[in-house]
Design a protein that fits this description.
Radius of gyration: 37 Å
Biased composition (Basic and acidic residues): 742-756
Catalytic activity: ATP + H2O + phospholipidSide 1 = ADP + phosphate + phospholipidSide 2
CATH architecture of the domain at 450-687: 3-Layer(aba) Sandwich
Helix content: 40-55%
Number of strands: 35
CATH class of the domain at 450-687: Alpha Beta
Binding site for ATP: 440-442, 533, 574, 597, 630, 710-712, 801, 807, 830-831
CATH topology of the domain at 450-687: Calcium-transporting ATPase, cytoplasmic domain N
Strand order of the largest sheet: 16-35-34-33-17-29-32-31-30
Low-confidence stretches: 1-46, 757-765, 1115-1181
EC number: 7.6.2.1
Mean pLDDT: 80
InterPro entries: ATPase_P-typ_cyto_dom_N, ATPase_P-typ_P_site, ATPase_P-typ_TM_dom_sf, ATPase_P-typ_transduc_dom_A_sf, ATPase_P-type_domA, HAD-like_sf, HAD_sf, P-type_ATPase_IV
Shape: elongated
Number of helices: 42
Amino acid sequence: MYTYRPVDTFKDEDVHILDREERWFERGVKEAIYVKRKRPSLNRGGDVTWKVKANDRPYHQLPEFKKKVFLCIKKSKYSGNAIKTYKYNVITFLPLNLYEQFKRVANIYFLALLILQIIPEISTLPWYTTLIPLVIVLGITAIKDLVDDLARHRMDNEINNRKCEVLLNGRFQEAKWREIQVGDVVRLKKNDFIPADLLLLSSSNPNSLCYVETAELDGETNLKFRMGLRVTDERLQEDHQLADFNALIECEEPNNRLDKFTGMMLWDRERYPLELDNMLLRGCKIRNTDWCHGLVIFAGGDTKIMKNGGKTRFKRTKIDELMNYMVYTIFALLILVSAGLAIGHTYWYEAIGTKAWYLFDGKTQTPGYRGFLSFWGYIIVLNTMVPISLYVSVEVIRLGQSKFINWDLQMYFAEKDTPAKARTTTLNEQLGQIQYVFSDKTGTLTQNIMQFKKCTIAGRSYGTEEKAAPVDWSWNRYADKKFQFMDHSLVALVRSKKDKDAMEFFKLLSLCHTVMVEHKDGDLIYQAASPDEGALVTAARNFGYVFLSRTQDTMTIREMDQEMTYEMLALLDFNSDRKRMSIILKFPDGRIRLYCKGADTVIYERLSPNSKHKETTQTALDIFANETLRTLCLCYKDISAEEFEAWSRRHKEAQVTMNDREAALDAVYEQIENNLMLIGATAIEDKLQDGVPETIAKLAKADIKIWVLTGDKKETAENIGYSCSLLTDDMEIHYGEDVNEKLTRRQASRRDDPQAYRRGKKKTAEPFFPGSNKNALIITGGWLIDFVDMACECEAVICCRVTPKQKANVVSLVKKYKKAVTLSIGDGANDVNMIKTADIGVGISGQEGMQAVMSSDYAFAQFRYLQRLLLVHGRWSYIRMCKFLRFFFFKNFAFTLVHFWYSFFSGYSSQITFEDWFITLYNLAYSSLPVLLVGLLDQDVNDRLSLKFPKLYIPGQQGTLFNYKNFFISLFHGIFVSLIIFFIPYGAFLQTMGQDGEAPSDYQSFAVVAASSLIFIVNLQISLDTSYWTFVNCFAVLGSIAIYFGVMFDIHSAGIHVIFPSVFTFTGVSSNALRQPYLWLTIILTVGISLLPVICIQFLSKTIWPSVGDKVRPLPVQRQACRRSRRSAYAFSHAQGYADLIASGRSFRRHSPPPDAPLCTNFAEILKRKKLTENDRRYEV
């Protein structure tokens, strides 16, 4: 029984099951069956409640189709065809956007602070010190959201105002898409977009075939075909016939299943089954069809494409989670510090404040109440410990890092004009922490350009003559000139027409498929659902068995020089569970034969005991698999007319059932696909992509474990593993059969020693594979339950014969039990589940369409770009974000805690140390730009060295650059600097006399000196932490200091004080204080004492405890020192030298030196290797 739920109630695992990627191949051509007997009502039991009446708009407004929307207000459950993807309108933008922004805890926190600052008894800071930063942050975010939503508005209006022809009042009239309703009949023409989910009624093509392009729906550009029912094709060609059409459609409720539709049409007391092949889905485009008619079944938000527009699972990085916990920690520290100072104020006021007449403020408040007010005052004063600009700065950095990925020319694939694309801006730093990579094989590691290479027919193998000249196909005018085959004997055998097995072999290839053919300029163009199928039909075409055309009921081929038409009785679909497809044909002489092709594992189970050549074919299959070729077995079965008639009745019953129709059809298919006779097998080559072995080797050196998940057989997957360097000769290979034995032993040991495994105690660390050898695991889909611990001990894992759902399950198991950061990479629809499940999904724009790309977080054209994405962009992004966060927390602690030290000398009275405007502008203007540029541009080593030394990636996996240890180091560093900033000026101001005879030790001069010291310290500190200097960094540091002094002198001027006397109260302070050399000396002393320990620690750490990056950085200098040849020095004195060659590592490509080899090399050898071909350059490090 099917149960239907709204899309937004589906769980992740449900989505995995329902997603369209479970279907590996396009559903084939179906025979439309004219069923002339009554069936029970579809909506019995409440399974199907969606009813559509053709040409009857009032029918859909009946009370039974109303649903409650609010209180007693009801509306039709049938959506209009206007779509709405925008979030805001003129009225709702401000309140809704503010509501969404205040879902963030930090914004609510600062709003609460603003409210507290408005209360006079509590406020210790003017309200604008919080309002201005809050408004700026909210405004920037609101503008970004507004720009995005305006783009959605434009897109919605463009789509809703498209035109099409709708049948109204007996004739077709032009109408906008937004005016279409459920039950309308529409006419579409060639190249029109489909406005709603339509039931195809008729078309200009024979048998109501209609070709559609589904690029907007699933990203695939190859044409698909849909068919109308035979009855509608025959009776609904003219306008008056369409106007009289009054059928009732009963079908499933709207859902997001792009690969499934189940329904029934009731017309003139007859019922006709409906399925996906009868539907034209919104988002597709009509191709190669002059016109077609359709009945609107689902409109607007009920269409399948809109149902698939639901929210994707939000992915967050580890740093995001850690940052949130740290903000919560700061909140806790803020409350504790404020509470302690409030208690201090209570005791101070009781002991001193009540006795000092000059402190009397005319209020009769108790010390306890004053302490309570002081608590809220300190919450306001110390609020900058939680910086409001942190989240905005993080988003700016992530956006910039995403742009750098998009702009990277070294990840641009010129052959297809495909740049790298960061489809998200929230996961960049997670790219620097990947521990496991899960990769598809076909199209990801390989090119997915299939070529028919070898075959075995009746026990004899062909295509093994690799060194022979290619076959000349001039005798075949239909041959594809690009097709190459080396074995002349097979061509001669087929042309002789003497070998019935060879003839049957290629006849099967030309008939058993779902390929569509287009005749264009005298040539045949095949539209195949997969590259494999296209390669097989093309091979049959070149060998003389040319697929020419198909209709709903027939297939026409040319067998050598004779054209033959076969009646198609049934087509048994290919899917990932069946792993085979079959077609039942009626020959011109009346014979009925079933042709079947599929994976050897399922075909051999269904072979007749009398089938010949099973052993020799199996041997050939093993040989083909060892050569990394993709194999399919071909077989046939002759069927008697009586047997087919009985099976056809069961088939028709399964086709019209509404309860689990697919399972019923699979069961019926099993009844006919048995006792098959083996003909032979095909072997198709799928070459590795460029740079795959080098990329896998690099990632392995970075301690990234790579798992390959594929649907291929074990032998093929294993040999691909060796060819791409995933498996090496020094690895011990373990197969899935070993898993059960090892796990059984582990479980037995648990039973023998239950105390060691009692609940809550850590599991034993005993390894599955003792010893120091490298291990690899090759496992099939049936062993994917209890293998995580064992697999994670291996250097490489290959899972073969796995379904799309099993791929996602493998990723989920590793994420759940290993708490590891995972990345999935694939190129096809069957990889979408895996891509969505991983922490980061990468799509490759390959031969299987764009579904993987559309579901991914990052996309590019070649697997080899993954090493640059992780080892360069990922590593840089992680380092930059960690450095940014460490410094951001430090500078805010150093700034805020000065107030804490000042409180000990101000009676814990919530008095601020700095001027109001300095507090307001500190994070906005004085210290933001240098640290922001470090987060955007900094790099410890360049991209070449990042790739040359993959071990640099390991700190990111270990999370050593930003964790609670680093957080507390930043906290204590901030405490130390705040102590220096307060107490050195404090000591300097005690009993001091200026040159003019006046004491400069007033509060305002102290605030200016402390603030100036702070600005110098934080800007010089970020300079010390900057590894990669550019003009922009230098300008930012000097500019921030200049902005501080410029703004300070302006707001301390007499002119602005005259205009706003109550707002700008530090009149003339800066000019008076900073003319005193003594105070400049105090600033220099404060800055020097603050930075000297940092300089010493950095020096010691880089000389005594250098990091991997510190060891790598001096290498270019060492190389230069090795050049002792005078001829080398002469060569390098010229304008165009060879430094780029040496630095890029090109000269070391062919013979990589051992790790302990000297870094210098003979210059003459470099000159010899200078001339590299463009093909070689693709392998540059």
